[in-house]
Amino acid sequence: MKAAIDIEKLVQWTIREELPKGRPVSADIGFAIGNRTIRPGSIARNFARTPTADIGGMGYVPGAPCADACRVADAIGNLETEVRLSNRPEALRLFGEFATILADDALTAILSSTFNPQAIVVSNAAQGKRPNWRFDAPKPLQRFVPTAGRPRPLVYGIDTAGDLIELKRNEGRARKRDGEYTVALFPRSPLEWCNPSLLTIAEARAEYVAWHRAMSTLAFRLTGKLDAFEPMRPTIAAMPWLGVATVDPPPPKAVARYFGVRTNKAVETATN
User: Fold this and answer.
1) Whether the Cβ atoms of residue 200 and residue 109 lie closer than 8 Å to each other
2) Are the C-beta atoms of 104 and 92 separated by less than 8 Å?
3) Per its UniProt entry, which superkingdom is the organism in (predicted)?
4) What is the chain's pLDDT, residue by residue, as a tens digit (272 residues)?
C-alpha cells in the first residue's frame, strides 16, 4: 500500500536527500533537475552537465537516487520556467492588507515581472522552507525631487481650474502672506512606502503563488506514478494573506493638525 505524503515533503526529500546521491559533495543541487538549456542565473541545470568545480578530496555522496525520486525530479524539470501575472485583479490580490496604501507604480511594475516556478520550487526545497509572504507594515517617507543642491520635497496642489499641479515653495512676500505653501491650493506631498517597499512585498507573494501552483501541479502529475508514495496537494492556502486585517495607517500628526486648523477656521467663519 502506498504512503500518502504531502507534496512539499516529497519534493524536499527528493532534493535534499535523494538527488545528491552519486554526485560530488560540492555539487549545485539544481544541476540534477530537468533537461533544459542552461541559462545564466538559473538554478535548474542540465541533468547531464558535468560539474566544472574541482572537488578535490571531498568525494561523492554514496548511493544512487531511488526510482521515485527520479520521477519527482523529472516532473520538476517539466515545470514552467517563466510565468507572468495574467491581469490587474490578480496583481491587486498580492498586496492584500496593504492595498489601501498601494501606488500605481508598484502595480505596473509587478505586472511586468516574470517568475520561474521551477527555480522557486528547487530553491525552497533545497533550503527546507516555503517562500515568505509575511511582512511588517511599510513605513511612509516623503518623496523628494533630485536637484543640483539639496533635494526638495515633491508637493502637489489643485489649481483654480481643478487640475493637479506641482507646487513650489512660496518665496518673499508670498511666503510671509501665505506661508510655505498656499493653503487654498490644498498642498499635499505623496508618500513613498518603504522598508519593505510594496513592490518587494508583491514580488515575494507572487513567488509564493507561483510556488503553490507548481506544487499543486506536481501533486496532480505524480498521482499514481510513484511506487511507494501517493502525493497529496498542498493543504496550506494559496493566498494566506487575504485573511489578514487591512492596514490603514493614521495620518501623521502634522496632517491632523493641518486639517484641525482648517476645521476650526470653518467653524469660526460659520459663527461670525
Assistant:
1) no
2) no
3) Bacteria
4) 899 999 999 999 999 999 988 877 666 666 566 544 444 433 433 333 444 444 445 666 788 999 999 999 999 999 999 999 999 999 999 999 888 887 788 899 999 999 999 999 999 999 999 999 999 888 877 777 777 777 877 788 888 888 888 888 788 888 888 887 787 888 777 767 778 899 999 999 999 999 999 999 999 999 999 999 999 999 999 999 997 766 655 454 444 444 444 434 433 434 44
Please state, in angstroms and rounded to a whole number, the distance separating the CA atoms of residues 217 and 76.
9
Instruction: Determine how β-strand 156-158 pairs with β-strand 152-153.
Output: unpaired
Whether the predicted model's global pTM rises above the 0.85 cut? no
CA distance 85 to 115: 9
Query: Taking a C-beta distance cutoff of 8 angstroms, is the pair 12, 128 a contact?
Result: yes
Q: Indicate the helix (H) or strand (E) that contains 223.
A: none
What pairs with residue 229 in β-bridges? 3
User: And the C-alpha cell for 58?
Assistant: 571531498
All cell numbers assigned to 166: 506641482
CA distance linking residue 49 with residue 39, whole number of Å: 13
Amino acid at 78: N
